[in-house]
Write a structure and sequence with these properties.
Blueprint lengths: L1 H6 L7 H16 L4 E5 L2 H13 L11 H8 L3 H4 L11 E3 L4 H10 L5 H9 L5 E5 L6 H13 L2 E6 L5 H5 L2 E4 L5 H23 L3
Parallel strand pairs: 1-2, 1-3, 3-4, 4-5
Helix pairs in contact: 2-10, 3-10, 7-8
């Protein structure tokens, strides 16, 4: 985290919230929970980006356990070769990527509730929802957060600096100090990269 604040000193104003977000995420994964992520437009791409950093190695190697590799070795040469390429993962699902479900639910029910439907279907106590919205007021993300809270999930939001519907309902909101959409997005990336790197340090030794 020190490097984050050295490279982006304006994010020092968010230090407490970033550290609180890391604590929430660490607790989720430590207790075998999974992370659900939602957002729209560029924020949807950010969800995909985060999943890519969590579900495979980011800055360090994440080899499978010796016990798992030994079990693979009993299942044939093709399975044994998996030991050299599989990587430790922190379970995370990007909700915006599910186009068939999004289009079906939006057509049959209510488009703004589609992320809430996914949270209702995938979520369980101990899981966590991460909402990304530059305004903090994206209706589908807000409804997803309300559904998550009703189910007992913790909610993290990443927004711009204004108080918002998401900041009022989330357990932790990181409000980066910008207001224009593209400038907010430019600060979102280093924040979530720093969180992904910190989580990798927490959960993987190699």
């Amino acid at each position: 985290m020190k490097e984050l604040f050295k490279r982006y000193p304006k994010l020092i104003s968010c230090r407490a919230e970033i550290e609180a977000a890391l604590a929430l995420l660490s607790e989720c994964f430590r207790t075998d929970g999974k992370l659900l992520l939602c957002g729209n437009g560029g924020s949807a791409d950010d969800c995909e980006h985060i999943v890519g950093e969590l579900m495979k190695n980011f800055l360090k190697r994440r080899p499978p356990s010796a016990d798992f590799c030994a079990r693979l070795g009993t299942l044939g040469e093709d399975a044994k070769s998996l030991a050299s390429c599989l990587q430790g993962a922190l379970p995370a699902i990007s909700l915006p990527n599910q186009s068939a479900l999004i289009s079906a639910f939006s057509n049959d029910a209510m488009a703004d509730a589609v992320y809430a439907q996914m949270v209702y279907g995938y979520g369980k106590p101990g899981d966590m929802l991460w909402c990304i919205s530059t305004s903090g007021n994206a209706k589908n993300a807000v409804l997803a957060a309300k559904g998550a809270r009703a189910m007992g999930l913790r909610v993290l939001s990443l927004t711009g600096e204004r108080e918002s519907d998401l900041s009022r309902i989330s357990d932790v909101t990181i409000r980066v100090p910008e207001r224009e959409t593209f400038k907010v997005q430019e600060l979102h990336l280093p924040v979530y990269h720093a969180l992904c790197a910190a989580l990798e340090n927490v959960f993987f030794d190699a």
